[in-house]
Amino acid sequence: MQNTFRPFGRLAASLAALFLVMTVLVPVWAADAEFRTVSTQALKDMLDEKQAFTLIDARTKEEYQEAHIGKAVNISEKDFDAVVSTLPAGKGALLVFYCNGVKCGKSKKVAEKARRAGYTNILLYSEGFPVWEEKGMPIVAGPDYAKKIQTNMMSAATLKEVLSQKKGEYVLVDVRDEFEFAEGHVEGAINIPAESFAVKSGGLPKEKGIIVYCNSGGRSYMAYRKLMKLAYPKIYQAIFDEWKKAGYPVVKSQL
């Protein structure tokens, strides 16, 4: 009888050991949990209601100087240790961090430094400055904010070659309105309207080239700028009118 129950004794011991390991590991996992987030509207309400919190722009000094959310202070990852003394003395003070959107890791890195410094009340505005700007929220703009940028233009012929030979290396984005896209677009393109581009572009892969196009260049230029702010490394602009004038095929879809 004693031999019969011995395996169960070993099993119980193993389960007890596993429970002990999990007891040790769970607090470690909890310490690495994601930060709580705040929406665009909620952040605006907090600012409008003059709630007590510190808003921190975790982007570079150059990005901050170009434009930022009002009342935000600029603390980048590399500058954190030098300026941490300027943060509120009370470790329970509310800190809200932002950078250039959901694929920008700067705010999370600076927030993590704040957590290691002992701050316990931290929020991330994960949608970031591009979405704040896109939704028409108030910003502080520097002298270089409206400065024209030079886009990396892709001709219709090059675009056709890319789509036929290197399609898997690129994502083609039509930034026109949904009804325009339905009336005719380049085959293989996805539709992300310019008016909501920063909000919806978070799913675009950074490891691929992103090609944005519209009819004549205005809306795709704005989308290009937003992708730059979102730190996409390979961005191109194409013109749909040039594609049509070259006689290349256009496909239709239903709304």
Automatic annotation (TrEMBL):
Signal peptide stretch? 1-30
Keyword Signal set for record: yes
Which classification does the entry list for the species?
Bacteria, Pseudomonadati, Thermodesulfobacteriota, Desulfuromonadia, Geobacterales
The record's InterPro entries line, in alphabetical order, gives: GlpE_sulfurtransferase (IPR050229), Rhodanese-like_dom (IPR001763), Rhodanese-like_dom_sf (IPR036873)
UniProt KW Membrane keyword: no
Which terms are listed as keywords in the entry? Answer: Signal
Instruction: Pinpoint the Rhodanese domain residues.
Output: 49-141, 166-252
Instruction: Please give the Pfam families that the UniProt record associates with this protein.
Output: Rhodanese
Which superkingdom heads the taxonomic lineage of this protein's source?
Answer: Bacteria
Q: PROSITE patterns given for it?
A: RHODANESE_3
Q: What is this protein called?
A: Rhodanese-like domain-containing protein
Question: Per the UniProt entry, what species is this protein from, by scientific name?
Answer: Geomesophilobacter sediminis
Supply the SMART domains for this chain.
RHOD
Write down the SUPFAM superfamilies for this protein, in alphabetical order.
Answer: Rhodanese/Cell cycle control phosphatase
